[in-house]
Each structure stands twice: as structure tokens, then as C-alpha cells.
Model the fold of this input.
Amino acid sequence: MIESVLRATLLGLQLGVTLALVAAGLTLIFGMMDVINFAHGALYMFGAYFGLLVAETLGSFWLALVIAPLIVGLIGAGIEVLSLRPLYGRNPLYHILLTFGIAIMVQGIVVQVWGARSRRIPAPELLTGSVSIGPVTYPIYWLFVLVLSTVLIGAIWIAIERSDLGILMRASAHDTEMVDALGIDVKRVFTGVFVFGAVLAAVAGVLLGASRSVHPGMGFGVIIEAFVIVVIGGLGSFKGAIYAALLIGLVIAYGALIAPALTDLFIFGLMAAVLIVKPSGLFGATEAA
Amino acid sequence: MKSVTTLAADLKTAIGLGETTGPVGEQVLSSQGRLAALVVAGVLAAFAPVAEAFEPFWLNILTRMLVFALLALSLDFVFGYAGLLSFGHAAMFGAGGYTAALAIREVTTNALVVLPASMLVGVVVAAFVGWFSVRAKGIYFAMLTLAFAQMFYVIVFTDLPATALGVETITGGDDGLFGIPLYDVVGIDFGSRLLYFYLTLAVVLASFAVLVRVANSPFGRTMQGIRENEERMRFIGYDIQRYKLLAFSISGGFAGLAGGLYVPFQSVAQPGLLHWTISGELVVMVLLGGMGTLWGPMLGGALVIYLEERLAGFATWEIILGSVFVVVVIFAPRGLAGTLVSVKNDPRNAIDNAKGALRNYAEKVRG
Done:
């Protein structure tokens, strides 16, 4: 009993920090550009598939983990400049239609290029096998994902809180107009944030592509989880997204322990409960969008 | 390029769903528009027997298009008019559908009984969801409706009601309920696909008439007022929450009605009816068609279903469908309805306008 709870906790934390990578990009993009990015899941999926491509052709998981996010970052830049940029200043609802369209396109492209069958990125030999943590045996790969994601999230957090770039980002999110008036090219900041979000999503895609599976439905699957996280945390709140991601990761893991079929019920029930009690999320501004 | 100054201001109004349609107080549908709606219905009615004779496949598509037109209409009523972005309309659609399936199996196949029942269940579900959700605003409202809809989806998918009541099955779990026959009305058997098409057409047309009527009523004006400026309406003394809840419930009723029409036609009720992807598609249909016009979203709904059906043969259909959404949103921001209206008002400059849009796009991309 204690064993399975401990195991679920570790799994939940691992899933939570990896989902935080996806949700962090989503919440930063919303916070700054007011874009509800439905294509974010598609970028995550692209990360997994390009990871698969690189891992299979070059035979290296490590190269996949570096190259795939870079490719996806480039794609993200293309999406931002060609389709989102002309839409700033319009009703944000149109971003839903736009990014929904992009998500459907990506799904079609993936099925065309890679087929519909489910696959898995081969994990490197170094990370196979398992270790004992107290009474549980835990796959080394999961531990690696847990550590790497935590380090990444921690680094981003510090960067946002401390670095000049982070201050610029927060300032742009807070008062776009003022930052623009100060002579900073906000358009570039926007593109940068979008690309950054895409890269993070792709990293998560490669990481989870080797432990869960890589299939054409994964983009739409993760996007709802990510939205739930971002909303529970409070839209645009980076801190909120991280806490909420851990919470959701644990809920998924414990849910799988209690009643696997009802996991979604717990997740959405939790979200509904949070929003009913606090209509702008845990760390959201009081005046909700 | 539009300066970032105006951008910020625009975003603020946009979040309250401002700047979407014409000025408050405009007639929802001119007498000309009403005539056009009747003509379209007449053409469809005349075309149906031809389709039946030569290509029965068409009759199927047309019926599905009508059902989704009704569904998109129901969403636009609450989204385009009251500014409530519901991301859970599949819940009411599915609830209506399952009501029809269970009623037809256990009680009666009479459309005059079952369809109102589907509608009523849609209202009840919407009232339940709305009760918890209308306090939240914008995207938070959307996510709350989504959350409830997904919970209903899980409940239906895992057949929780049967577990709770200790019976074998109620919703049929992930298999759904199969072999649902078509309706009849005392004396008339709608067992033929052609008659079923007419039944659907009649219901959709009547729903459209009712919703246009409501949108033009003082209630509809109040809804538009709430969409444009909620604070002001509150200060005038309107009970915003009650109006929103009412609008959401009415909308849910018509979504339930659409479900009640859909399930016997497909002869199966499946949990997929309640899945969020349906809700997402509906939002896309409304935006594609042009929100706040009622007829535009019907067009959008019909078009999406048509494209999905026709393109399904191509291997690349998702890529094409996605591109259509992207192109429309960039170049025709007011949807099909907006484009049609502007071409109608200014047919000679249509090509110039299109060129202008392209130039404008290139300029914005360059920044």
C-alpha cells in the first residue's frame, strides 16, 4: 500500500513537472499576448515526432532532445510571424479559430508523414533499468525526466524572477503599451516568447515521447490538460501554472491508483471546484479576463 | 502597423466581446433576410427528393448539415448575443441525444413527445452548468463549461449512473446505445430518410424563427447590452446573472433539440457526442460563419460538416480543413456572414478589397 502510494507520488511529480513545461509556455503566451493557443499541443506533438525522427535517423536520444526543440522553435517562429502577428489587436477569440485550424493542420501533417500508428522514442541505454528508492523500484528514465524537468522549470523561474529579460517579459505582460513607449520592440518580444513556449513544449514532447507513447492524438490530449493547469493556476500566472501542474500530475497519478477510468472526472471536478470558489484561479488577478 | 497603444485598448474591449457586430439595436434579421431564409429552406425542400432519387448520400449530408446548423445557431445565441463563450455545448447536445435514445427505447417513438423531452433535458443541463458558471467571466466561464461537459462525458463513458443505481447498463458505456429507430408522429411515419429530412428542416426553421424573434425582443436587446457593457447594465439595475443564466438555458434547450434530432438519424447515441472536440468544433463553426448574426453560424456549421464529409476521402483532408480556418480568420475576420454582406453591399470593389486585405496582411507580417 505505502509502496504504491509512494510510486504514484513519484510518477505524479514526474508527470507534473513535465506538464509544467507545456503549461509554462501556454501561460506565458497568454499572459503576454492574450493568445489562447490551441496549437500548443500540436507543437508538443511535433516535438515528439521530430524527436522520433532524429532519434531514428541519427540514433541518438540526446541529439533528439536538442535538435527537435530547435526545429519546433523555428516552426513556432513561422506560426507567430505569419499567422498570429497579423491578428494582434483583434478580438482574442479569433486566435482560437486560428490556432484550432493550425492544430488540425498539424494533426493532418503528422498522419500523412508518420502514419497513424502509435510509437515510442527509444530511450538511451544509459537511462534504462531502474533504481530502488526506499521500498519502490523506479525506472531510471522517469527519474531522469523528473530531474531534468525540475531543473528546467527552476531555471526558467529564476530567469523570469531575476534576469533583465524576465523583467522585460513581465513588464510587457503587465503593460504592453508602456514597454512599447519606452522604445522596446514588443513585436520581437512576442515572437521570442512564442518560440520559447514552443521549445519548452517540444522538450516535454520528446521527454514524454519516450515514456508515454507518440501518436497523432497526443496533441489534443495534452492541450486540455495544459489548459486545465493554466486555468487552475490563474491565467498568465507562471507560479500558478507550476503549482497547478504538480497538483494535476499528482491527481492523475493518484486517480490512476484509485479509479483509472475516472481520472478525468477528478481533474475537471478539481478545476470546477477551484473556479467556483475562486473564479480567477489560484494565483489569477482578481479582475478576471 | 497598428500601434501597440491601440492594441492594448482593443484587447480590453475584446475581452468583453465588444467590437464584434453592428451597433446595439440593429435588427437581427431584416425582412430581406427572412425572405432569403425562406428561399433557402424552399430550395432545400425541393432539392431533397432529387437527392433521394439520384444520390441518397446527399440526403444524409444535408440532414447532418441541418443538425449542426441548429447546434451552431444555439451556440451563437448565447455566445454572439450574450457574449458567453461556452466551451461545453456538447454536454447539452449529448444530453438531448441520450434522452432521445432512452425515450425511444423505453417509452415512445413519437417525435412530439421525444423532441420536447430532449429540449427540456437540454435546458435542465444548461441551467445546472450555468448556475455554477455564469459568475465567471470570459475564458474562465469557457473553462468551467468545459469542465462540466467533460465530467458529463466521463459519467456517460463509464456509465456511472448504472453503477450508482446497481443496474446493468443505462448509457451503454463506451459502446453507447445502438439501434435507435427513427421517429414517427401520430399517423405519420418518419421512417423514411426523406421524411426525416423534412422533419429536421421544419424543426431547424422553426428554431431559427424563434431565436431570431427572441434576439429581437427586449430580452435580446438586454443580452446585447450585457455583451457590450456588463458594468453599465448592472448599474442600470439589471440582474446580469439571471439574464445570463436564462440565455444559457434557452441555448441549451436548442442544443438538446439538435441532439434529439441527431441520435435517431445516426441510430446510435455515443459518448463522443459529449466530447470537448464537438464543443471546440462548434466554436469554430460560429466564428467561421460570423458570430452574432445567427444565420452566419448556421452557414458555418453546414459548411464545416460539408467539408468534413466531402474531404474525408482525401488523405490530406485535415490539412485542407485546417488551412480553410486559418485563411478565413486572417482574411475574413467577420466570418462568412461578414464577407457575404460586404460583397453584397459593395460588389464592384470586392476584388479591390481582397487586394487591400492581402496588402494589409503583408504589411502586418513585416511589422
Summary: The radius of gyration of chain B is 21 Å. Confidence is low (pLDDT under 50) at residues 1-25 of chain B.
